[in-house]
Amino acid sequence: MAHPISARRSTTVSVFALLCALLCVLPCVLLCVTGCKGKTDEIVIGEFGSLTGGTATFGTSTHAGVLQALDEINARGGLLGKKVKVVTEDDQSKPEEAVSAVLKLIKQNNVVAVIGEVASSRSLAAAPQCQRNKIPMLSPASTNPKVTEAGDYIFRACFIDPFQGSTMAKFAVNSLKLKRFAILTDTKNDYSVGLAQYFRETAKKLGAEIVAEESYSEGDIEFKAQLTSIKTKSPEAVFVPGYYTECALIARQAKELGLTVPLLGGDGWDSPKTTEIGGAAVDGTYFTNHYSEQENRPEVKKFIDTYKQRNAGKVPDAMAVLGYDSMMMMADAITRAGSTEGPKIRDALAATKNFAAVSGTITIDAQRNAQKSIVVLKIDAGRFTFVESVAP
Ligand code: PHE
Fold first, then answer.
1. Which neighbouring-strand residues pair with 137?
2. Would the CB of 143 count as within 6 Å of ligand 1?
3. Does a structural domain hold residue 25?
4. Cα of 243 from ligand 1 centre, angstroms
5. Domain endpoint, select from 289, 321, 354
6. Of 263, 289, 315, which closes a domain?
7. Number of domains in the chain
8. 26 falls within a domain
9. Cα(274) to centroid of ligand 1, in Å?
10. Do residues 178 and 276 share a domain?
11. Ligand 1 centre and the CA of 140: distance in Å?
């Protein structure tokens, strides 16, 4: 039988313990209801991108496109009777930060799906996390084939680099009638290395010659040694499959060295910064891209008008368009899935067929890549002018 004093003490102790437990648990419960689980009356989608760093225009443009789509989706009543919210994480243009960003979105924000990234190296870093957690990831603009090979939860809203590289090689050989090329690759960038390979393969198949191969690393600012060596081999054009900051500097330094042959590039050239940094030196460059502001399709015109109204008259670049398209494609998949469960959204994304996007009609193939057309653009007096469109 318990002694009366110790019985009283143990009652006091257990009331105290209960109070302590309540005090500890209550904030967590409140936090989870309002924060970590998300409100039950809204659907939370994650976005990760380079809002700052060396490719900041990629992230900020994509984000503007995502928000434009989000507002349209919510204006017409949201999805599955709920409001949609987008939580955005900045990865500072760094692959390791991309990993932390998606983990945060998945673990802390409980997102049902993720949109991102633009740069292939960062999509490659983040994809395994989405795959492991069965959270569908839709890359708006990563074109390296390896990205979607990360698993059956990883999709993209754009074409892939074998198509992009071969299109530029065919254009250079067949339309520009050139036969001697140099290639200047960013060896730290999966996208650049892949695109160089596909250009090289097709150019050689078409009977052209690669007379020089040089390399650099993202972040470099001095390219004169490589360009001097390229100049001695007298190529008829130089293929530069990189991102806008380095590409525009390369164009300037090439002109300074008297290397005046056309430069050829891929979608990484698409940024308002290309002409801002490159000035007249980027005139005469040809590059492949996801869309042209000069296309006459009504959906392009409508998108550009709204984008300009929302963004102080700015003309949208390809990332803005692809951010918008990705968000719309994700909304379409969630609607068809009738659910926000990862496996169901995954299945619906995989079944995407003839989806009318601003950047073209999207059909997702068995490798979870988008089958769609590509455009060739020329930089002419600072303007990206439409040259041709090539079907997949
Ligand atoms: N395709 C590039 C990559 O995979 C990224 C990019 C897309 C850059 C669109 C510019 C425009 O890394």
1. 114, 154
2. yes
3. no
4. 8
5. 289
6. 289
7. 2
8. no
9. 14
10. yes
11. 9
Percent of the chain at pLDDT > 90 equals 89
Residue 203's pLDDT band, with cuts at 50, 70 and 90, is very high
User: Is residue 117 within 8 Å of 144, Cβ to Cβ?
Assistant: no
Q: Is 280 left (phi over 0), alpha (psi -120 to 50) or beta?
A: alpha
Domain membership of residue 378 (yes or no) is no
Cα(283) to centroid of ligand 1, in Å?
Answer: 21
Q: Does residue 379 lie within any of the structural domains?
A: no
Please check whether residues 172 and 119 belong to one and the same domain: no
Please tell me whether the peptide bond between 246 and the residue prior to it is cis, using omega within 30 degrees of 0.
no
**pLDDT tens digit sequence for 83-119:** 999 999 999 999 999 999 999 999 999 999 999 999 9
Q: Is the CB of 183 under 6 A from ligand 1?
A: no
Ligand 1 near 144 CB (within 6 A)? yes
Q: Domain span at residue 185? A: 162-289
Predicted model pTM: 0.90
119 CA to middle of ligand 1, Å?
A: 5
- 55 Cα nearest atom in ligand 1: 8
Q: Rg (Cα) of the chain, in Å, rounded?
A: 25
Distance CA 204, CA 152 (A): 34
Rounded (10°) angle between helices 95-107 and 120-132? 30
Contact residues for 235 (Cβ-Cβ < 8 A; gap 6+):
180, 181, 182, 211, 212, 261
307/254 same-domain check:
no
Ligand 1 pocket test, pick from 142, 293, 377 with the greatest ligand atom count within 8 Å of Cβ, gives: 142
Judgement on whether residues 144 and 69 belong to the same structural domain of the protein: yes
267 lines ligand 1 (CB under 6 A): yes
Q: What percent of the chain has pLDDT above 70?
A: 90
Give residue 192 CA to ligand 1 midpoint distance, Å. Answer: 10
pLDDT at residue 254 above 70? yes
The two three-digit tokens of residue 194, written as one number: 């892949």
We report the CATH number of the domain holding residue 279 as 3.40.50.2300
Contact 318, 304 (CB under 8 A): no
